[in-house]
């Protein structure tokens, strides 16, 4: 089968940063689905893996989000059968979705929204799982809860921020403040439903002071190291901070005086460690699909970049790394 990946870690402007190659069509394990991939998207994790992790045993296939049609099902699969349309975010410890066919455990797969095409559907799973787990697991907000409290989303126009704002507004009673710094990102965050927007290029404690609001919950989705001291100042005592990026070591001792909690969200933890509750990703993706179909959750795809090719994917990686990405960039599957 055809695939796109990388043979050596490095910058996206290096020669052959991404390559096309042929590889064997994989065979499903007991709980695996073999999916004919018809849509994929680009996430920050794609660029981080390509830039920093050397492949083992030949080129590594990138891509985590995927949507497609089940071609084969493993012997112990119970929730899907060949012909089903599915979407999912995969497992970072396995080969990715930038290929004609892809293996994925059924416990982290949802039924694809009926109102979306494959490419647009592929733009949703990773960010939806991350935002869902961040809100309800890491920050510990209860569905329907949060009345009288506020969530600050740092990086509101990115893929995760776009979904997080919506989930908080649809499924909790939290007030949402999101950060954005350009006219296009401000407009995007407004569309996602944020109650207030502040500029993360200014000191955030000052921005929040102007609003007269102290959040109990903070989602640090980007540039955590730059904002961490301000977050410690602006957050309420006994507040909770969730982090998804990879800052250098954070000094957390100053958080003691407010009894603050800090937690990391990493949506690959469940599939990588095969946790007993990894099926919750299957469940939440099915709920996300229903919300997309009934219009209570807006799609967050910003650009449909057409056919998946080495050149187009290279351009998408570069744009993702530029710090100017809004929402998600998606592609049709290889050969489509």
UniProtKB/TrEMBL annotation:
Keyword NADP included in the entry's annotation: yes
Domain Enoyl reductase (ER) residue range list: 13-331
Cell location: Cytoplasm
Stored SMART domains: PKS_ER (SM00829)
One Pfam assignment: ADH_zinc_N_2
Keywords annotated in UniProt: Cytoplasm, Metal-binding, NADP, Oxidoreductase, RNA-binding, Zinc
InterPro entries: ADH-like_N, ADH_Zn_typ-1, ER, GroES-like_sf, NAD(P)-bd_dom_sf, Quin_OxRdtase/zeta-crystal_CS, Zinc-ADH_QOR/CCCR
Domain of life (superkingdom): Bacteria
Keyword Ribonucleoprotein annotated: no
Alphabetized PROSITE patterns for the sequence: QOR_ZETA_CRYSTAL
Similarity-based family: Belongs to the zinc-containing alcohol dehydrogenase family. Quinone oxidoreductase subfamily.
Subunit (UniProt): Homotetramer.
Protein name: Zinc-type alcohol dehydrogenase-like protein
């Amino acid at each position: 089968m055809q695939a796109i990946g990388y043979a050596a870690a490095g910058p996206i402007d290096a020669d052959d940063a991404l390559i096309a190659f042929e590889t064997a069509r994989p065979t499903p394990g007991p709980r695996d689905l073999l999916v004919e991939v018809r849509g994929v998207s680009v996430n920050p994790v794609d660029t981080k893996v390509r830039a920093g992790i050397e492949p083992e045993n030949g080129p590594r296939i990138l891509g985590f989000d995927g949507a497609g049609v089940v071609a084969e099902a493993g012997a112990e699969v119970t929730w899907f059968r060949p012909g089903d349309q599915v979407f999912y975010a995969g497992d970072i410890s396995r080969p990715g979705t930038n290929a004609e066919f892809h293996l994925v455990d059924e416990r982290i797969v949802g039924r694809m929204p009926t109102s979306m095409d494959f490419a647009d559907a592929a733009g949703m799973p990773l960010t939806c799982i991350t935002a869902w787990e961040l809100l309800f697991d890491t920050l510990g907000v209860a569905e329907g809860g949060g009345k009288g409290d506020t969530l600050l989303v740092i990086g509101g126009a990115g893929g995760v921020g776009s979904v997080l704002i919506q989930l908080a507004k649809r499924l909790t009673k939290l007030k949402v403040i999101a950060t954005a710094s350009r006219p296009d990102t401000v407009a995007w965050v407004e569309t996602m439903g944020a109650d207030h927007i502040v500029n993360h290029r200014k000191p955030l404690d000052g921005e929040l002071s102007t609003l007269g609001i102290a959040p109990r919950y903070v989602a640090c989705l980007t540039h955590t190291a730059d904002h961490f001291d301000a977050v410690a100042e602006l957050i309420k005592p006994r507040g909770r901070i969730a982090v998804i990026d990879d800052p250098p070591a954070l000094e957390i001792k100053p958080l003691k005086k407010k009894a603050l909690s800090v937690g990391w969200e990493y949506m690959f933890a469940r599939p990588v460690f095969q946790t007993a509750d990894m099926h919750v990703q299957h469940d939440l993706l099915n709920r996300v699909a229903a919300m997309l179909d009934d219009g209570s959750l807006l799609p967050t795809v910003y650009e449909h970049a057409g056919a998946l090719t080495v050149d187009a994917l290279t351009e998408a990686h570069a744009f993702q790394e530029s710090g100017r990405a809004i929402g998600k960039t998606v592609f049709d599957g290889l050969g489509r």
